[in-house]
Design goal:
- The longest helix has 19 residues.
- Helix 3 runs parallel beside helix 13, helix 7 packs antiparallel against helix 8 and helix 7 runs parallel beside helix 9.
- By secondary structure, the chain is mainly α.
- Helix content is 43%, strand content 2%.
- The N terminus and C terminus are likely disordered.
- The protein has a single domain, classed as Glycosyltransferase (Alpha/alpha barrel), CATH 1.50.10.
């Protein structure tokens, strides 16, 4: 598996921008899908995941993936799929033991200082996905006996992210994150993943200083570029987000969807930019074809669906049923999901058979709002819904009322260290690296690879032996 592939897992992906022409939208789907159909699809997906989880040996609790480095990330995504349907470890739910086994397996991938990406050059993706799973277990946990252990694990995982942001960087790169904790580079995708973790941490009751978010959001704002409309294509002016501000030149669909989602959580962007980003994404309507999304159908859909859900109103009423229809129409009889045609990066040999099942279940489970990261932000939703209702009353009148916003589970805040060790220990000599492709063919400017400045390295995730 290459960096491209973990980039899509962890969710893990970047689509090539400007190279795929927008396809004609499919026929208008129904404004509402029967809840029983969605419930049946998610139940089938969860049943398939439970039946295909490894039961014995060193990989007990994981799912089949060719590259051992990525098994914890797939196990975390599968675990999140169960959590998104209310199956918690330590409860009497049907899949409680399945989630507990996944959590136990994921725990083995974490070093003593909390880093979960050791041994892989794209480790911050793995770390973020693992952290989301653990934080979600903690934020939803009903077994008090597990809280202290989970809280300590969460605290150490969050500290890795906080320390990594403090690596000295140029102004353009400042505030963001990159593939590994000690690199002096940043990119929008990894940065959005870490922000999602930190948002989930706050939802679960942890305290994270506001300057951490301010610096990261400022980095994302530097990635915005306006786009002119096209008279020939009848396209209005729009705006999108670069993968790496200062290095890449064209906005990209997954990066734009990621930032739109993050902004919807933090209510951080102005309305004009949000609308411009939505206009850009509408140029690429949903289709069951991997090439439409550069080979990253599940990853792109995962973030676009969450962003539209947070925005709510007419946007969600239109986008949600269309994506759900695609997923429901292509589910296999055994409850699993296949990879779409032309999925050049999401395929069985790279991410394994459990990946599309977990991603599809996660997308179909948004409305339940069980996961901390799924909880709709009331202030943003009410503002946007009111605006949408005024602009399109006919569209919203036929849309079922959204479920009530669920407040985060109250927890006693746990202080988090926000400064690195004043006397960091240099990292141990790395293992012989596995050769990975870059996640973007055009992301080779400004120097790639792992040759970050030695003084910027931190003793995060160093080998224990």
């Amino acid at each position: 598996m290459t960096k491209n592939h973990i980039y899509l897992i962890a969710l893990l992906a970047l689509l090539s921008a400007g190279t795929v022409r927008a396809q004609a939208p499919a026929a208008t789907p129904p404004t509402r899908i029967e809840p029983a159909r969605i419930e049946g699809a998610t139940a089938g997906g969860l049943r398939w995941l439970a039946e295909h989880q490894n039961r014995e040996g060193a990989d007990a609790g994981a799912w089949p993936v060719n590259n051992a480095n990525y098994r914890p990330a797939i196990a975390s995504l599968a675990g999140l799929a169960f959590l998104s349907n209310g199956h918690l470890p330590g409860t009497n739910t049907p899949y409680a033991r399945t989630v507990a086994a996944a959590l136990k397996y994921v725990a083995k991938s974490v070093t003593s200082d909390g880093y979960a990406g050791q041994g892989d050059k794209s480790g911050m993706y793995i770390h973020a996905i693992n952290s989301l799973f653990v934080l979600s277990c903690y934020g939803m946990q009903s077994d008090a006996a597990l809280d202290p252990e989970l809280a300590n694990w969460c605290r150490r995982s969050i500290d890795v992210i906080l320390r990594a942001q403090q690596v000295s960087k140029s102004f353009t790169e400042r505030g963001g994150w990159r593939y590994e904790p000690f690199l002096d580079q940043s990119d929008v995708s990894v940065t959005c993943w870490q922000l999602l973790v930190l948002h989930s941490a706050r939802q679960a009751g942890f305290e994270v200083e506001q300057p951490v978010f301010n610096a990261a959001l400022a980095y994302l704002n530097r990635a915005y570029v306006p786009l002119k409309g096209s008279v020939e294509k009848n396209e209005p002016a729009a705006g999108g987000y670069l993968y790496r501000p200062g290095f890449t030149q064209e906005p990209e669909r997954p990066a734009t969807a990621l930032v739109l989602f993050i902004h919807s959580l933090f209510d951080a962007a102005n309305e004009q930019r949000n609308q411009a980003a939505l206009t850009y994404l509408r140029r690429y309507p949903l289709t069951w074809d991997g090439s439409q999304y550069g080979g990253y159908f599940y990853f792109s859909g995962f973030y676009m669906m969450q962003g539209m859900f947070q925005i709510g109103g007419a946007e969600w009423a239109s986008f949600g049923p269309r994506m759900a229809t695609l997923l429901l129409d292509h589910q296999s009889g055994d409850g699993s999901w296949p990879y779409p045609p032309n999925s050049l990066r999401e395929d069985l040999q790279t991410t394994g058979p459990a990946y599309p099942v977990a991603m599809a279940v996660l997308m179909l489970s948004l409305d339940k709002q069980y996961l901390p990261m799924y909880q709709r932000q009331r202030r943003l939703y009410e503002r946007t819904a009111a605006t949408a209702a005024a602009e399109a009353p006919a569209a919203t009148a036929t849309t079922p009322a959204p479920p009530p916003v669920q407040p985060p589970v109250p927890k006693i805040p746990i202080p988090l260290p926000t400064t690195p060790d004043p006397t960091p220990v240099p990292p141990a000599a790395p293992e012989v690296p596995v050769v990975h492709e870059e996640p973007r063919g055009n992301d080779n400017q400004g120097g790639e690879g792992e040759e970050g400045e030695e003084q910027n390295k931190r003793a995060i995730g160093r080998p224990l032996f």
